[in-house]
Amino acid sequence: MNFAPPITRRNHGRGHSYRDANGLKVPGVTTIINKGVPKQLTNWAAETVAAHAIDHWDELTDLPISARFKRLKGAHNAERDAAAVRGTKVHALAVRLEAGETVSVPEELEGHVASYVDFLDDWNPTSIVTETPVISYKHGYAGTLDLIADVPGIGRMLLDIKTSRSGVYGETALQLAAYRYADIYLDGDGKEIDLPPVTETAVVWVRADGYDLVPVEAGPDQFRTFLYAAQIAAFCEGARDLIGEPLTIPAVAA
């Protein structure tokens, strides 16, 4: 589908979406991957739901059965979304601290922020693009990257910040490739600017007890796979429309 420029990001609650000038919804990178890539997280999802049930047993008991079901059904998605929000907050707070600002860090994020500050101190990245929407008009998607930075001894890196407990998953390669090969990014004034090329892609896996800088291969092959995933996601989105009404027995002329 061809989208009309400009494409903008719209924030709502804890989430966000992308729309073009005609109000059409533009697929987001993580949404495409979630819908177009088979998940290998069955055990993680099951364990997350089980842990949520144990940790919130009394609270769940007070809920109607249907509400309990809804809460548990979405527990793994809530954990995933919370990790994404946590990563964004950690990045923003740590950068402000590194710049010498005085900020109030929530207690639950203190360890993560300290670990990210350690990353900044150890690797000394110079930010080029930070927390900004990227858009591909050619392929019809949008997303929000965390950081493009010049890192001494390595080069210009596209970095994604992850705070999940279980580490870096392979599908992150598709996410980084989609960001890397987008056409443009939006600056603070909403102006479209050509996305600068990068030489390396990686994840900063930030935990309360430390961090790791994890290289991720996100080149042309991974981008091609992302585009395949986008096709599958688009099919899944409209697959129900391919099913017609049951046929009726035609009248037979006497």
Summarize the topology:
Layout: E1 8-12, E2 15-19, E3 25-26, H1 29-36, H2 42-55, H3 57-61, H4 65-73, H5 75-98, H6 110-123, E4 126-136, E5 141-151, E6 155-162, H7 172-180, E7 184-186, E8 192-194, E9 200-207, E10 210-215, H8 220-238
Parallel strand pairs: 6-9
Antiparallel strand pairs: 1-2, 2-3, 4-5, 4-7, 5-6, 7-8, 9-10
Helix pairs in contact: 1-8, 2-5, 5-6, 7-8
Short description:
With 254 residues, the chain is an alpha+beta fold.
Question: Which tags fit this structure?
Answer:
single chain, 254 residues, alpha+beta, seven-stranded mixed beta sheet, three-stranded antiparallel beta sheet, globular
Distance between the termini: 49 Å
Given as residue ranges, the uncertain stretches (5+ residues, pLDDT < 50) are none
What oligomeric state do these chains adopt? single chain
Classify the secondary structure makeup into a structural class.
alpha+beta
Strand fraction equals 15-25%
**How many helices does DSSP assign?**
8
Order of helices and strands: EEEHHHHHHEEEHEEEEH
Q: How many strands, what sense, and barrel or not for the largest sheet?
A: 7 strands, mixed
Can you tell me the overall shape? Answer: globular
Number of strand elements: 10
Query: How much helicity do the residues have?
Result: 40-55%
Order of neighbouring strands in the sheet with most strands: 8-7-4-5-6-9-10
What is the average per-residue confidence, as pLDDT, rounded to a whole number? 86
Radius of gyration: 21 Å
